[in-house]
Amino acid sequence: MSAMPLPTPSEPGSKRPYKGRGLATVGVLALGGVVLAMSLITRAISGDADENPDKRMSGAGDGSAVSLAVGDCFTSSQHNEVHSAVPVSCSRPHDGEVFATVPLTGSSGADDVLAKQSYHQCSDRLTDYVMDDWSLPHTTGINYYYPTRGVQQSGNRTTACFTADTNGRTTGSVRLQETSLAADQLAFLRLELASARVFKAYPHLGGTAANRAWAARTAAALDHEADGLEAAHWSAGARPKVTVYSGELRRSAELWRKAVAARSDNGYWAHSDDAWNRPSYKYQRDVRKALGLASDLPATSFGPPF
């Protein structure tokens, strides 16, 4: 993830009509007692949310999907309506790689509630695993398993978040280890991720008060990233690009502060529209090129540019 992720999928009840690119969503299945909701990259093309599934297929499976752990790669199979997942080495062809497991909150076991929770929690955690989602192939999708009511009754209320390739089985891990990065690359990505974590807490269905509070945190995070960029030591080739990018982050932070300071709700939303549009991806891409990082816009990011 970066400090400027791609547009988030539009969501019923959200205040901002997001625009995005990516693949349409796929259906909902049951895998080893876990509902599989294939939310591939974004809902932007389909305009429909698979976080509100209207059908669950029955499935007993072997239960292995319930016990998948972070870092597990697996193959999935189907016999009639029974689906199962089998962990395999990531060096072998596999259907998915688990990048997070997250607990479900609340007492509701309704499919739409569980799918909505799973969708947001998984999309918020990808970069904790891969660190730089710009390095992922554009065929990578974000998917999740969440427990059926029967599994929940046994005490398991955990969602498994995983990546999958839309072209089919793949080999190798999507995980980016810090040891594989140069010092300046790692410094830049850490600053970007710190901002992104604040940004990803966007209150999708929150009112103006919640959005103001989030905007204030976002402005502070952007200034903090700019401080870090200006304090770090960069190569001669990267320094000018970093300086320009830092200035753009500060201008973006100021726009968010203007939105926070607006006297009316309408004023907040008007100012926030200006803030959403800055800065351009160009500045971030220029820094990445100078540092030797992937510079093609990621296909799996969530959240509008800022």
Structural description of this entry:
36% of the residues lie in helices and 15% in strands. The protein is built from eight helices and seven strands; from the N terminus they run βββββααβαβααααα. A hairpin with a 2-residue loop joins strand 1 (28-31) and strand 2 (34-37). Helix 4 (183-199) packs antiparallel against helix 5, helix 5 (208-231) runs antiparallel to helix 6 (239-261) and helix 6 packs antiparallel against helix 8 (281-291). It is flat and about 50 Å long. The model is unreliable at 1-64 and 301-306 (pLDDT under 50).
Task: For this entry, give a set of tags.
306 residues; alpha+beta; seven-stranded antiparallel beta sheet; 8 helices; disordered C terminus
Amino- and carboxy-terminal Cα gap: 13 Å
Q: Would you report the number of β strands?
A: 7
- Unreliable sequence segments: 1-64, 301-306
- Helicity range: 25-40%
What is the string of helix and strand elements? Answer: EEEEEHHEHEHHHHH
Summarize this, please?
The chain has 306 residues and is α+β, with helices and mostly antiparallel strands. The chain has helices spanning 111-123, 126-130, 149-153, 183-199, 208-231, 239-261, 265-276, 281-291, and strands at residues 28-31, 34-37, 73-79, 82-88, 96-103, 140-147, 158-165. α4 (183-199) runs antiparallel to α5, α5 (208-231) packs antiparallel against α6 and α6 packs antiparallel against α8 (281-291).
Which SSEs are present, and which pair or pack?
Layout: E1 28-31, E2 34-37, E3 73-79, E4 82-88, E5 96-103, H1 111-123, H2 126-130, E6 140-147, H3 149-153, E7 158-165, H4 183-199, H5 208-231, H6 239-261, H7 265-276, H8 281-291
Antiparallel strand pairs: 1-2, 2-6, 3-4, 3-5, 5-7, 6-7
Helix pairs in contact: 4-5, 5-6, 6-7, 6-8
